[in-house]
Amino acid sequence: MKLRMMGKDGPVEVDDNGNPVNNKNNDFFKNTNFKKPNMKHVYKGFVIPIVVLVIIFVLTSQVFFTVNEMEQALVVRFGEIKRVIVEKDADKARAAMKKSGKFSDDVEVVEGKGLMMKIPFIDRVEKYSSQLITYKTLPGEVTAKDKKKIILDNNAQWQITNPALFRISMETIENGNRRLDDLIFSGVREKVGKVNGSKIVHNKEFVYEMLGDIKVDINDVVESYGMQVADVRIAKTEFPEQNYENIFNRMRTERFKMANKLRAEGDEQYKIITANSDKEAEILKAEAYAKAEEIKGQGDAEALKIYADAYNVDPEFYSFYKTLETYRKTLGNNTKLVIDSDSEFAKYLFRFKIVE
């Protein structure tokens, strides 16, 4: 096995014991000159282009910025808002900012998305979500008109419509949620205090109408904050634990009352159905009896006709046959008769002699 090692004159081949092996190819390595690369050329060829690219990237990121479909933005210069980029209703946003009196007249309000420009190293971009934000309020206890206490768990959906007003009033979404929590609970407490608790629990149409009125009232307030509430809902309605026993007793009484009512209605229907069934059964029996009597009468008439025809053909035989029928029905195995031998009934009994 041959190995290659570096010697003072260049790479040489050695055997397993490390002894040099004569090889004509060694002359090639001996005569080969290995030059050390020039670092100045490397620096110029690689480092400078990379630095240039980094500078271009930094300048580009400082000049251009993007606003995607789910964002709104503010361009701030030395802490002062210079441009407001909203999703829609730029005129409405401009009028609201003017009404607040907290912005200069040179603030630009535009609608749009995509790539935009700013002054590098001076302007700063602050972005805000334009999507609906869902907030679940903390459960709160309210008192109805009939002094019943109810625990309501509400939630709301809202969005930022004017990032400039939102920045100077709320600053963060967490602050917006806290402000909505106060407004929603205050509105619900006011509305619930005007009606009985049962109406809140059982009348869904009233609750939807009440929440719609609360949403309108809240939007009148939060419009100056650059916010808009899209929906307010009661997620869960509960009663305090001390009211559970009274509620269960009332529910039990209502269920017993409903059960008794249903039972009475069922008994009434049973009686009506039974009476109708008995009536129909009697009618069917009467019709069947009349039909049977009719068929029986037709059978008897047909039998009499047959008897009459048979009598006309052979009266003697007919009389004999009818007398035998009478014997069969009257006389049994141990029947004893005491009659005169001249009797019409016994004329066939004594006319024939029994042959032993």
Summarize the structure in words:
The protein has helices at residues 25-31, 39-63, 90-100, 163-169, 173-192, 197-202, 204-222, 244-313, 315-330, 347-351; strands at 3-7, 10-14, 64-67, 71-77, 80-86, 108-111, 114-117, 123-129, 133-136, 140-143, 149-160, 227-238. The protein is an alpha+beta fold. Among the domains are: 1-34, no CATH class; 64-129, no CATH class; 133-239, Band 7 domain (Tetrahydropterin Synthase, Chain A), CATH 3.30.479; 314-351, no CATH class. It has a four-stranded mixed beta sheet, covered by helices on one side. It is elongated and about 165 Å long. The model has no long low-confidence stretch (mean pLDDT 80).
What is the highest CATH level, the class of the domain at 133-239?
Alpha Beta
Q: CATH fold name of the domain at 133-239, please? A: Tetrahydropterin Synthase, Chain A
Number of helices, counting only DSSP H or I runs of 4 residues or more: 10
Give the strand tally: 12
Report the span from N to C terminus.
Answer: 146 Å
Q: Give the H and E element order.
A: EEHHEEEHEEEEEEHHHHEHHH
Name given to the CATH homologous superfamily of the domain at 133-239? Band 7 domain
Instruction: Supply the helix-strand structural class.
Output: alpha+beta
Average pLDDT reading: 80
Which CATH architecture of the domain at 133-239 is right? 2-Layer Sandwich
**In what range is the share of β-strand residues?**
15-25%
Shape field: elongated
**Uncertain regions: pLDDT < 50 for 5+ in a row?**
none
Q: Round the Cα radius of gyration to an integer and report it.
A: 57 Å
* Helical content band: 40-55%
